[in-house]
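Risk mitigation, structural track. In case the binding assays with protoporphyrin IX containing FE fail to produce interpretable data, a predicted complex structure has been prepared as a fallback.
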Amino acid sequence: MTTQDELRPTLTTESGAPVADNQNTETAGIGGPALIQDQLLFEKLARFNRERIPERVVHARGAGAYGTFTVTADVTAYTRAAFLSEVGKQTETFLRFSTVAGNLGAADAVRDPRGFALKFYTEEGNYDLVGNNTPVFFIKDAVKFPDFIHTQKRDPYTGSQEADNVWDFWGLSPESTHQVTWLFGDRGIPASYRHMNGYGSHTYQWQNEAGEHFWVKYHFKTDQGIRNLAQGEANRLAGEDPDSHQRDLREAIERGEFPTWTVQVQIMPAADAAAYRFNPFDLTKVWPHADYPPIEIGTLELNRNPDNVFAEVEQSVFSPAHFVPGIGPSPDKMLQGRLFAYADAHRYRVGINADHLPVNRPHATEARTNGRDGHLYDGRHGRQKNYEPNSFGGPVQTGRPLWSAVPVNGLTGNHAAPVHAEDDDFVQAGTLYRLFSEEEKQRLIANLAGFIAKVSADREDIVERAVENFRRADADYGRRLEEAVRELRKQR
Ligand code: HEM
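Fallback model:
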């Protein structure tokens, strides 16, 4: 044994006893069967069987990093959130990027929205902004989300993603036309997580100290510049380096090249909402910048890699319902559904104490609840009373709601989202198409046609419905797409 070896700590079992032999199972004689008294063998095999937790039902594949958010503008006229209270104020953050449809081991360089889930560890609790790299989404009502995701994931019979299912659903859900146009354009495959924007996507509420409220949309503009992959490049990269995005992020931070984003908000006074030309709570629509110009409010820098991917990325949890005083939800029906769905997923996927793990718990304050116990409870509350009201000096409510009440009207019912003066499912898809350069239009048509052409030969009706939505967005868009699809289907 060398001196170096002598300095090394002893390997132990989970209960801390020294391990005598980590190479050979104990057997009954030389060459005989294994003995039940070899508990090291059982401990290792049993733990190994339990190493995985259920992967996220969407956004399973991802990478994360810690960082810092710095306020660069005075926004106290709009929100009383403490972490936004002063120019120069800094807040620790954790950001998890992801793709949506692929399983945990899927390739990064695919055409899919990217998740942009950001946790601000504020002094008033954690604020989670769980967004994407796209300002809009495919649907506008949470009740459609499980169906939508089923079409993106594996078919119950074939076990693969099927063009029939994807285009059937999108064709029958015309509100998806805007997001689909976005996704099949150049930004549909970012070159890396560093080279894309992030968006809160939904409209959220800000409330100032005086109790006035505003509607806001968040934009995170990459300071690295937008860079995308063409479909062919992405196909090659997905095969050669499935972890391309994850590796790029980690290596950039290791090199000290900390990626940054300029944070902007669009702010709508509450009184504007009812008469605005688009329903401001419709997730399939943007607010054109001419209507509500983005205002710069801060900068986000990612500067520290997690040490342990399982503990800090796989077990990280983000919930759109994690608000802080001065920030709240809007009546967007998608957002309302998400307020329930995430914490429920966390309880299933990570467990009832998920919020107490180091990556998830507040870092700039502490959680003071009467919630207790459950699997893997760490006993942090000691002897403290676990009920309220109590007369033992336990924590008490503030009496001040985090956000403003909003007026409601009418009867309960399964109402469609209200339609404003210029709302339809196609208008903003058409505007986006016409904003694309001729070259981008050509790539968009080729990308869409390549996928639509894969629909089964005997389901021309699915193809027709899909193309019709794009035709309604813009006649030229529809005509070119129809021709391209027809050409490709002839060659099949
Ligand atoms: C009603 C619609 C939606 C529902 C029900 C829903 C539900 C979920 C669920 C259950 C998860 C997995 C959470 C976990 O296991 O930790 C998830 C992840 C995620 N969702 Fe959604 N989602 C919806 C729409 C959206 C929208 C519109 C966006 C973006 C604007 C979005 C962004 C994300 C992101 C970024 C993640 C990954 C979070 C992480 O990194 O842990 N989702 N979603």
